[in-house]
Amino acid sequence: MALIGIQLVVSLLAASIMQKMAPHFSFARWLLCNGSLFRFKHPSEGELCALAGKQMPKPNRRDRRQNGENKPLTVPKDIDLQLQTAPVNVIDALVLRFFLEYQWLVDFAVYASGVFLFTECYYAAVDASKEVNIGAIWCVLTVLFSLKTLHTLMSHYFRSEEGGERSVCLAFGFLSLLVAMLVLVVREDYLEFGLEPGFSSLFDNLEIFARQQGYADWSIPVTKLTVKLGLAAVCAYIGALLVFPGLRLAQTHLDAVEMNSDRPLVQILLHMSFLSPVFMVLLWVKPIARDFLANAPMGKTSITIVPSAVFDSMRLWIIVVLCLLRLALTRYHLQAYLNLAPKWVEQMKKEAGRIAAIDIQRKVTRIFCYLTVVTLQYLVPIMLILFSTLSLKALGDFSWGLGAVETPGVTPALVLPTPAPVLPGIVDEDEDGVEDMEEDIQATVAHLTATLAALRAVFTPLFFKGFFTFLTWWVAACQVISSLLGMYFHQYLMQN
């Protein structure tokens, strides 16, 4: 009966609370509408005419009949225009593009974090090694939903006929494919993902599982090379999803640093947040991270600064802390994006000529309408790294304790459990229906338990350790590449 336990009850309770509380309280709505973000309102035509020193033109029916439409109102570009600010409220946020997708994903991630924390406390208090880790399932679902949201955003770029967004996604996808193929051939002595032992464990357990099911001559029809090629294709897809979030991160980082020029502590935190994916990538470079701490050279000898098992736990803690740091600086990046409106106005004042009033209004309004898109581009990569790390901890048999004892990565023998038979008893004829129903329920639960136990025996912690380690590292690596390209583009190419 391990399938129906307190974890499942808490999981169902969290899903029910998320559904009931969404209309009343939402963390996603609070993040945008707590009064800390200020949007810029577009000027009306009357305000633009007053700044230009002329009266508001009255509609002329004779000109409309002759020309078919009114002549658009134009004003000089160098007018003294100052945009008015207003705090972002719920009414403003409800009309934003992709707001519903943003609200659902962020709220689901918050409840997934709560379920994961409960399961961690539950596993620490009770020996529940035979139960299904519901918190890990919520974390994996968050990773999948995050990828789906990024796919939705990328499909929006592909449908756009203006600009070169589609070409940028395809080019970065091919670049990611090339980088992934190079990374996958690197030996474990340099990049300690654990993919080789993980795939070996998976293939061996699948063959044992097939023989136990009666397929004696069945063997794995694919090779490790085929699996790595498929994994490289997945990496190319993830790289294409993360290109615009990285480019946007570079832009908001530069603007946020400029916006907080008089606050050196905030600037330091912003730089640490921007460089955090670089630290995550280096954590799995064995000569730089593990070998330096576990076998630090000291003359002709070497000393152990951090034991190997402690380093695994410390690495998880570092990634979680860096992700929380980036989440804490969300408001600075979003406000830096909203400040693009007055920045564009100041740039317009330096130009000569005239501009249509509708173009000014459209530009200022468009910046605010894409606020949730920018928020998703900032938050989703953080959620991918954070929940991939949490899945790695839960499914890879790691520990949060810095005094953990290292366990060897041995694949357990695959033995399928046999469900306990239901013993027939002497019952009355009136109780046959109830007894048959109880037997059906027991048989269903036993079958599900046996199926989950078989899956746990096939997909061992050794496999999950290699897979989620590589996924976490790859998302961080894509953010490093795309954000550095974005930094070069915005700081050098845009100025020339």
Automatic annotation (TrEMBL):
Pfam families assigned: Tmemb_161AB (PF10268)
Give the membrane topology. Multi-pass membrane protein
Claim: Phosphoprotein is one of the keywords in the record? no
Listed GO CC annotations: membrane
Transmembrane segment boundaries: 135-155, 167-186, 225-244, 265-285, 367-390, 467-489
Q: Which domain of life is it from?
A: Eukaryota
Keyword terms, alphabetized: Glycoprotein, Membrane, Signal, Transmembrane, Transmembrane helix
Q: Determine if Transmembrane helix is one of this entry's keywords.
A: yes
Indicate where this protein resides in the cell: Membrane
What family classification does the UniProt entry report for this protein? Belongs to the TMEM161 family.
The record ties this protein, via PANTHER family, to: RE42071P, TRANSMEMBRANE PROTEIN 161A
What name does this protein carry? Answer: Transmembrane protein 161A
Species this chain originates from: Cynoglossus semilaevis
